[in-house]
Amino acid sequence: MNASLLLAISLVAMTPNALAGRAHYLNCEDYGWIVKGLDKNEIVTEVQREEIRTELIEATDPTCFE
Asked: To which H or E segment does residue 53 belong?
């Protein structure tokens, strides 16, 4: 799985609700699943991983990080 696919997943999950003016977050399980795949990925650099992880954190329910 490459970085563009991971970003596409997060954009697809967020776009419809963002357009409707609603906040829609990834749940904790989805965040964990995507990050697990990101960590296994050998194509993206560590810098790219951190950038993607930051975007995913912003798109995930804040209660997951309490």
From this structure: helix 46-58
Q: How many domains does the chain have?
A: 1
The model's pTM? 0.64
From its phi and psi, is residue 62 left (phi > 0), alpha (psi between -120 and 50) or beta? Answer: alpha
Instruction: Measure CA of the first residue to CA of the last residue in the chain; give whole Å.
Output: 29
Q: Given 3-state DSSP classes, what are the helix, strand and coil percentages for the chain, each rounded to the nearest 5?
A: 70, 5, 25
With tokens 């950038």, the residue in question is 51
Per-residue pLDDT reduced to its tens digit, 19-28: 555 568 889 9
Instruction: Give the range of the structural domain holding residue 29, as residue numbers without chain letter.
Output: 3-65
